[in-house]
Write a structure and sequence with these properties.
homodimer, 120 residues, four-stranded antiparallel β-sheet, 30% helix
């Protein structure tokens, strides 16, 4: 949903849903979060990410396969960020790793006519 | 992540990730969105929902199985809301339907000690 809009491959691929609430100790959190998106985007198998926070934060990243998720978990800077998150930033988080079965979307056209897009 | 925190069953179960951007025509959108969460929560097979919007909106709902997702899609009020969404509210949306393979979480304890929780 970040522009420009991503093109996803045919399913199956993977989604990692990360839902969190922060503590009051958010020093360096924003900068690190941005850096993690930048680093993740360069990983092999990365397909896209959406992230929104308004109290609760939801970040959904999309990956080609389980191997690319595992490789990203092993990245040294990502590992350090996760450790700092547990020590300081996160009051609570949940992670769901899920295999995408289908994907579809909608985009309003310039004539404001609704159009369906291909369903995966 | 809404409080009180949900208890998820052992995987597999399902996640529906709905990512969207709104048009300027948001009359009745907020009320309808709240109503849909309320209605969905009463459906058989509903496990939980998280929803955040800040420009982009991400709503992730969790379901026991594909049958419960299909039944919710057929709810008359939900169907009408989706139609209005395409006509008026959504500039763009994406839906990913995914099978949750594993789930884990973290919650800071009252002593501020980090603890892992069972991994699904």
């Amino acid at each position: 949903m970040q522009s420009p809009r991503r093109t996803f491959p045919e399913p199956p691929y993977y989604a990692v849903v990360f839902t969190s609430r922060l503590t009051d100790d958010t020093y360096d959190y924003g900068e690190t979060a941005r850096r993690m998106v930048e680093l993740a985007s360069r990983q092999p198998g990365f397909l896209g990410v959406d992230s929104v926070r308004d109290g609760v934060g939801i970040t959904v990243s999309y990956w080609r396969d389980e191997a690319s998720i595992a490789a990203w978990r092993q990245d040294a800077e990502h590992t350090l960020a996760r450790e700092t998150g547990r020590k300081r930033w996160y009051e609570e988080f949940e992670v769901h790793v899920a295999e995408v079965k289908r994907h579809y979307g909608f985009r309003r056209t310039s004539s404001d006519e609704a159009t369906d897009e291909a369903r995966g």
